[in-house]
Write a structure and sequence with these properties.
16 strands; Rossmann fold; eight-stranded mixed sheet; 2 domains; 345 residues; four-stranded parallel sheet; 9 helices
């Protein structure tokens, strides 16, 4: 155990009653004061922001990403805890993980009950996150999520309960570790692709939209996203990744204009896979959509965003244009988590 830095960003864990509802307004020191600090852990607090996480923007997430890297530039830091709202915690965690190139743990946590709630879950979650961030056993495990006595890998972990304490899980996987009796019990090592470099500072940030397929859906919203200047689109399809021939045509047109299109599903668990034609994933993949394995909408969007933020080659000598490079980055992010189904005999 050693020094753990807590980066405070707000969320329910930092929320107080505002007269008509709760909103984040507490500083990190106030949040830390509610929790028992594990023996041997020294804590330093960085107040980055205090907002409900539904209000977070890409600029906020990039500020968090750069702050994490700045904190880890200090070799005396053993790990980081990020207190975060639960609404978009899964997205920030995945973005941090994609760019995390350090063995020291970065652990996100939050709460389902506000700061001053009797028997609130924030103090326990924060204690467990501090324990995990300072644990040598979790070095090299990437960015993690500590919630309700469990430690999850960032990739694949989503919010699965709106109100209950066990708010986070990977519907297609299992926790990395459990916290029991003040100890971290490791269960598995998560698979992670090679880390991406930090995005370059940029003025205008890429627009990445999410469009959901349903009965009677047509290409209107997908085309509107392209018309609005989207550099990336996540298509949330049905089943194993299926839509209609009309949507396939719209995807092909978007890809031909340099738009990154990622394919996920509205089903809670399992991978998207090339099984069906007549508008299914077979046709969508042929049209240029990238299947995202078990990533769901929020994290699929982060994958597209990270690929879109990847700077083009300095001189173009690698023989590919910017769109090809970004598509390649997106495929690398998805990696082995994509699933292919062999053709029937």
């Amino acid at each position: 155990m050693g020094q753990v830095v807590v980066i405070s960003t707000g969320g329910t864990i930092a929320s107080r009653w505002q007269g008509s509802g709760f909103a984040a307004d507490a500083r990190g020191g106030d949040v830390l004061a509610t929790a028992a600090v594990p023996e041997g852990v020294r804590v330093r607090v960085v107040d980055l922001m205090s907002v409900n996480s539904a209000r977070l923007t890409t600029r906020d997430q990039l500020a968090l990403l750069r702050t994490v890297h700045e904190v880890l530039a200090d070799p005396g830091v053993d790990g980081i805890v990020v207190t975060h709202g639960t609404d978009t915690l899964e997205e920030s965690a995945f973005l941090l993980d994609l760019h995390h190139d350090d063995p020291r743990p970065v652990v996100l946590t939050g709460a389902q009950l506000p700061l001053e709630a009797v028997d609130g879950d924030g103090p326990r979650n924060l204690h467990d996150a501090l324990l995990a961030a300072g644990s040598p056993e979790l070095r090299g495990y990437g960015v993690l999520v500590a919630f309700d006595g469990r430690i999850h890998a960032a990739r694949g972990t989503i919010k699965v309960q709106t109100l209950a304490a066990d708010a986070f899980a990977d519907p297609s996987g299992s926790p990395v570790a459990d916290v029991e009796d003040g100890r971290v019990l490791v269960r598995r090592r998560p698979e992670r692709p090679a880390p991406l470099p930090l995005p370059a500072d940029a003025g205008a940030l890429p627009r990445v939209d999410v469009v959901t397929h349903h009965c009677d859906a047509d290409p209107l919203l997908l085309n509107a996203a392209v018309g609005a200047g989207a550099q990336g689109i996540v298509l949330v399809a049905t089943g194993a990744g299926n839509a209609t021939p009309e949507v396939v045509d719209a995807v092909a047109a978007a890809v031909s204009r340099g738009v990154l299109v990622a394919l996920t599903t509205r089903v809670p668990a399992g991978a998207v896979a090339e099984i069906y034609t007549q508008g299914g994933a077979v046709d969508l993949a042929a049209a240029g959509a990238v299947l995202t394995g078990t990533l769901r909408a929020g994290q699929a969007r982060i994958a597209v965003l990270a690929a879109a933020l990847t700077a083009p080659g300095a001189d173009g000598t690698d023989g590919t244009d910017e769109t090809d490079r970004r598509t390649r980055v997106l495929r690398d992010i998805v990696g082995a988590h994509a699933v292919s189904v062999p053709a029937a005999a």
